[in-house]
UniProtKB/TrEMBL annotation:
<protein>
    <submittedName>
        <fullName>Crp/Fnr family transcriptional regulator</fullName>
    </submittedName>
</protein>
<feature type="domain" description="Cyclic nucleotide-binding">
    <location>
        <begin position="28"/>
        <end position="110"/>
    </location>
</feature>
<dbReference type="InterPro" id="IPR018490">
    <property type="entry name" value="cNMP-bd_dom_sf"/>
</dbReference>
<dbReference type="InterPro" id="IPR000595">
    <property type="entry name" value="cNMP-bd_dom"/>
</dbReference>
<dbReference type="Pfam" id="PF00027">
    <property type="entry name" value="cNMP_binding"/>
</dbReference>
<dbReference type="InterPro" id="IPR014710">
    <property type="entry name" value="RmlC-like_jellyroll"/>
</dbReference>
Amino acid sequence: MDNHSMIKNTMIYEHIKDYLPVIPILELKKGEYLFRAERKTGNLFYIFDGLIKVENISYNGKKLIVDILDADNFVGPISSIHNADFQCSGVAETNAKVLVLKKSLMDELMQNDEFLVMFYQKTSKRVYVMYKNILARSLFGENEILAHYILKHSSGDIFKYKSIYNICENLGISRRGIYNILYRFEESGCIEKLDSGYRIMDRAYLENVADQMIKYMKNSEDEA
């Protein structure tokens, strides 16, 4: 599908179609940064293909994954709308394509009530999802969180992952913690190590470990 067709399928299209000739399009390779915390431009972006990961790195080097956004979402220093700066950066989780919404254009679009409603609906929903995920990390133990992650990201009975580091990054659990929990799961017989992941041998065991988190996440989704 060409760029125009993909853009036409987004919720923002009707609001920006007259501006498309002057809106830049950026095409990013996986791992390429879309924006960085230390470089202030005032621009926002609209994803129409691929995934963008938003991350925050603390003064001592600890990385927190704030959100991972897919197509048909705003991304960028959105906190600046509220005169805040959360020091986040955005990096392509996959190859991605985005529209560059310059500050002057955003100022003009925000004068339109229909656009304003769409903008705040989309961004407030993302804030809700981020809050839900951060709250889950406080409410549940690391074994519950990892069991839920394995179940959610398995295909059939196969759980594949890019790297242990990637799991640590997404769940906020240390590398040692991940290895220890996986070892205990292996010892219990509920998973079996493969060359590129794990085979789930006892799904009921993992579902029992993650039971309260599964219910919490389902209830949260029902309320959204």
